C-alpha cells in the first residue's frame, strides 16, 4: 500500500520519502518475505530492539511518524493505514457464522472460503478455521481502521507542506505523543534486555524480561505481540504469558484497539 | 540503551538516547536538566545512575549483574517525546547496511512501523 501511495504522490508531482521499520526481534529474515512482496523503492529498516517504541513512542503497528524537511516531527506516532487493505477487507466481508464473538463452540468448522488472501499468508489451503482463529477474525472485523482519512491527511501534507491542516506545532507534537511513566521506561529496559538475551540464543532468559515489560506497560502491543509470536509456532508455549491477543482485545474492546486519529 | 558499565561515554549516550551532556547539564531539544558534578568522572564519562535519577530513566540490571538497560526518559515532559526534533535514528537496512535517518534531511519523511508477527 505504501509503495502504491508513493507512486501516486510522484505522479502528482509531489513526493514523500517512505521509510519502513520492521519491529522484529526475529530479525531481517522474518521481515524479508513481506518486504519483497511489497516491492522495492522504500528504505526498509530492521528494528530488533523496538527502538521505535523508546525513541518515538510507538506501541502498536502499523503506526507512522511524520518528519518535515527540517527534521522536525510534525505528527507523532499514530495508526497508519494509507489505504484499504485487501486482507482486512476480505476479513471484514467474511461470513464467519456463529453469531456473537466468543461463541467458540458454534464456530467449530467455520469455512475459510472467501479468505484466500489470509490463507495464502498463513500458508494453508481452504481448510476449516480453528475456533480460536474465528474469534480473532471476529474481533478483527470490529477494529476501527481510518484508512480514507489517513490517506487524505498524507495527500494534503504532500500538497501543502507546512501549511497542511494536519501539520502540528512542536508543542502539540510533544503533548500528543504517548504518555510515558517511569514504569513504561522500565518496561522498555526490560524489553531490550529480553531482546538481547533472545538474540544471544537464550530465549528462556528473555521470557522473564518480556513478562515484566508486559506487566509494566500493558498498553504496549508491540511488546506483547512480539513475545506471543515466538510461542505461537511449533514448540512454542503460549502459557508462558498471562494473556493473549484475543483476551486482551476483548478486554479493551476491539473498537479501542487503535486510537482514533486526532485531526486539528 | 544496553550498558556493560554504569559509566558511559557521552558520545555513546547521545547516539543512543539523544541526550547531550553540556556544561549546563543534560540537554535535548529545548530542555536542559542540570547535573551535579558527581555525574561526570575524571575521564569525562557519565554516571548513568545519576543521569537516570535526574531524567526519570529506568535502570534495570540483568539477572547476571553484568549488563544493564537504560530506559527512555520519563521525567521531563511525561510524554514519549521530549522534543519535536526527530532523533537521529540509526538502524540496519534489511540488507544489513547502516542507515541514518538524518540522511533524508531536506525531504518530507514518513517512518512507518510494522511487523511480521
Explain what the structure shows:
The complex is a heterodimer of chains A (264) and B (117). Chain A has 264 residues and is mostly helical. Helices cover 49% and strands 8% of the residues of chain A. Chain A is built from 13 helices and 4 strands. In chain A, strands 1-2 form a two-stranded parallel ribbon. In chain A, helix 4 (86-93) packs across helix 7, helix 7 runs parallel beside helix 13 (245-252) and helix 10 (182-199) packs antiparallel against helix 11. The longest helix of chain A is centred in the C-terminal third of the chain and has 18 residues, at 182-199. Residues 100-107 of chain A have low confidence and may be disordered. In chain B, the strands form 4 sheets. In chain B, strands 1-8-7 form a 3-stranded antiparallel β-sheet, with helices on one face. A 3-stranded antiparallel β-sheet of chain B has the order 3-4-5. Chain B has a two-stranded antiparallel sheet with strand order 2-6. With 117 residues, chain B is an alpha+beta fold. The model of chain B has no long low-confidence stretch (mean pLDDT 95). Chains A and B meet through strand 1, helix 2, strand 2, helix 3 and strand 3 of A and strand 8 and strand 11 of B.
List the helices and strands and how they pair.
The complex is a heterodimer of chains A (264) and B (117).
Chain A (H helix, E strand, L loop, with lengths): L1 H10 L5 E6 L5 H11 L4 E4 L4 H6 L6 E5 L5 E7 L6 H8 L10 H4 L8 H7 L8 H12 L4 H14 L9 H7 L5 H18 L3 H14 L4 H10 L14 H8 L12
Parallel strand pairs in A: 1-2
Antiparallel strand pairs in A: 3-4
Helix pairs in contact in A: 4-7, 7-13, 10-11
Chain B lengths: L1 E2 L3 E2 L1 H8 L2 E3 L2 E4 L2 E3 L12 E2 H8 L3 E3 L6 E3 L19 E3 L5 E3 L8 E6 L3
Antiparallel strand pairs in B: 1-8, 2-6, 3-4, 4-5, 7-8, 9-10
Amino acid at each position: 500500500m505504501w509503495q502504491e501511495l508513493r507512486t501516486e504522490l510522484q505522479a502528482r508531482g509531489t513526493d514523500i520519502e517512505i521509510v519502513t521499520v520492521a519491529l522484529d526481534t526475529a530479525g531481517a529474515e522474518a521481515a524479508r518475505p513481506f518486504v519483497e512482496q511489497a516491492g522495492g523503492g522504500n528504505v526498509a529498516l530492521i528494528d530488533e530492539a523496538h527502538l521505535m517504541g523508546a525513541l518515538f513512542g510507538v506501541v502498536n503497528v502499523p503506526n507512522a511518524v511524520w518528519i518535515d524537511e527540517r527534521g522536525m516531527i510534525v505528527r507523532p506516532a499514530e495508526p497508519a493505514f494509507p489505504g484499504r487493505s485487501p486482507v482486512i477487507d476480505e476479513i471484514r466481508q467474511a461470513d464467519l457464522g456463529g453469531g456473537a464473538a466468543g461463541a467458540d463452540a458454534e464456530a467449530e468448522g467455520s469455512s475459510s472460503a472467501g479468505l484466500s488472501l489470509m490463507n495464502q499468508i498463513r500458508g494453508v489451503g481452504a481448510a476449516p478455521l480453528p475456533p480460536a482463529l474465528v474469534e480473532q477474525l471476529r474481533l478483527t472485523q470490529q477494529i476501527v481502521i481510518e484508512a480514507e482519512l489517513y490517506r487524505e491527511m498524507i495527500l494534503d501534507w504532500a500538497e501543502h507542506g507546512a501549511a497542511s491542516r494536519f501539520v502540528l506545532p512542536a508543542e502539540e507534537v510533544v503533548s500528543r505523543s504517548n504518555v510515558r511513566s517511569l514504569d513504561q521506561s522500565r518496561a522498555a529496559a526490560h524489553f531490550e534486555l529480553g531482546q538481547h538475551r533472545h538474540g544471544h540464543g537464550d530465549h528462556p532468559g528473555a521470557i522473564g524480561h518480556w513478562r515484566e515489560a508486559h506487566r509494566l506497560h500493558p498498553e504496549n502491543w508491540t511488546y506483547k505481540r512480539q513475545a506471543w509470536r515466538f510461542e505461537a509456532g511449533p514448540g512454542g508455549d503460549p502459557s508462558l504469558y498471562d494473556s493473549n491477543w484475543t483476551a486482551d482485545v476483548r478486554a479493551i474492546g476491539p473498537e479501542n484497539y487503535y486510537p482514533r486519529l486526532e485531526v486539528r | 540503551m544496553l550498558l556493560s558499565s554504569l559509566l558511559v561515554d557521552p558520545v555513546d549516550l547521545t547516539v543512543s538516547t539523544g541526550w547531550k551532556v553540556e556544561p549546563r547539564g543534560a540537554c535535548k531539544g529545548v530542555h536542559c536538566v542540570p547535573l551535579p558534578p558527581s555525574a561526570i568522572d575524571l575521564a569525562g564519562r557519565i554516571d548513568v545512575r545519576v543521569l537516570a535519577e535526574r531524567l526519570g530513566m529506568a535502570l534495570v540490571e540483568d539477572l547476571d549483574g553484568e549488563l544493564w538497560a537504560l530506559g527512555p526518559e520519563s521525567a521531563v515532559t511525561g510524554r514519549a517525546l521530549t522534543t519535536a526534533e526527530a532523533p537521529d535514528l540509526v538502524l540496519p537496512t534489511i540488507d544489513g547496511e547502516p542507515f541514518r535517518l538524518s540522511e533524508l534531511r531536506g525531504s518530507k519523511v514518513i517512518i512507518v512501523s510494522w511487523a511480521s508477527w
